[in-house]
Amino acid sequence: MKTNTIHHLNTILILVSCLISYFIPFELFLFSYGILGPLHYLTEIGWLHKKQYFTKGKYDFIFLIITCLILVYWNYNPPEIKHHGWVADIILLSLLVSIGLVFIKDWLYRFILIFISLIFISVANNSSYYFTWIAIFLPTIIHVFIFTWLFMIYGVLKEKSWAGLISIITLIGCGILIFTFQPAGLGYTVSSYVQNSYAMFSELNFRLINTFHLGNLTEVSQVFTTNIGFVMMRFIAFAYTYHYLNWFSKTSVIKWHLVPKKTLIVTLLIWLISISLYIYDYNLGLKVLFLLSFLHVFLEFPLNIVSITGIGKEFLSLSKRTKT
After folding, report:
1. Which of 17, 82, 252, 295 would be 242's cystine partner, CB 3.0–4.6 Å?
2. Residue 232 in contact with residue 205, Cβ under 8 Å?
3. What pLDDT shows up at residue 80?
């Protein structure tokens, strides 16, 4: 499939995701997260492994796996410590150390970076929004929307593609549209099943609304009953759905499917089991796949660093060409 065709397809997928999010936001999210999500985790981890996770060392990814395992273990067996920001600490440490994994091979300098990161984290802990931004926003909405957007920008800058630029503008435009065009209700109500299935995510909606002063919610349950709750859910559902669709639409470019037949069969088998769990009991599926969902976020940190620095290099190169 030609690159421009893929970009045009992505533009269509962005518009379709946005449109559907207006009418069934909670249901769209649950479908995307439960059906598309597991396949995305599995195939992306496999692709990252082939790319050596974009790090300097062959076994650098083990650090990210260990930190993720600690987070998941402590999530179900909280440590007996007074400090409650450990979730944010682990996530931020993994992100900061990923900088060293991408650019530094000497372990002496890596240990220095880890030491500096720990100092920075101890200072950042004093911020009132530290936990919200790192523990709640970073592995969710920043991961699926901001990092996806940056990855798209990096690709477009390398390709010099106008079709790609259109898809990037469309993504941002739809995000803005969701918050500016807010039709009340649309005859939409959230069923008890959907509320129960989405309960583990509702804190995200609540904090996004209150952090950005989009409303004045006093209870988490209000995300299911207020218009601003529906607006925020549209954005979250749109962001997650397109995040997954963007990955699958670029199969011919990324070539994540080019793996041994046995690997592909195991991947599809695990995916089908995951879907079955979500269908049987959505909350059970969330608990069983909690490790896999967070693991793909952690293992993607080096790629996020590469994308951000790559954008900087492309803009620097562009500015030099402009001057000459």
Report:
1. 17
2. yes
3. 73
Residue 114: inside a domain:
no
Sequential DSSP letters for 143-209: IIIIHHHHHHHHHHHHHT-HHHHHHHHHHHHHHHHHHH---S-TT----HHHHHHHTTTHHHHHHHH
Share of the chain above pLDDT 70, in %: 97
Q: Are 64 and 299 in contact (CB under 8 A)?
A: yes
Report the alpha-carbon distance of residue 171 to residue 186 in Å, rounded.
Answer: 23
Low-confidence ranges of the chain (pLDDT < 70): 1, 81-84, 185, 322-324
pLDDT digits 0-9 by tens, 187-197: 789 999 999 99
Amino acid at 160: K
Residue 252 lies in a domain: yes
Residue with tokens 């790319």: 51
| Per-position b or e across 4-38, b if 16+ CB within 10 A of its CB | eebbebbbebbbebbebbbebbbbbbbbbbbbbbb
Yes or no: say if 40 and 196 are a contact pair by the CB < 8 Å rule: no
Distances (CA, A) of 14 to 160, 235, 252, 257: 20, 12, 19, 23
Distance CA 35, CA 272 (A): 9
**What range does the domain containing 139 cover?**
3-56+128-323
H or E stretch covering 210: helix 202-211
Q: In the 3-class helix/strand/coil scheme, how is 49-90 assigned residue by residue?
A: HHCHHHCCCCCCHHHHHHHHHHHHHHHHCCCCCCCCCHHHHH
Residue 8 domain-assigned (yes or no): yes
pLDDT at 251: 83
pLDDT of residue 82: 63
Length of the chain equals 324
Q: For the chain, how many structural domains are there in total?
A: 1
Residue 260 domain-assigned (yes or no): yes
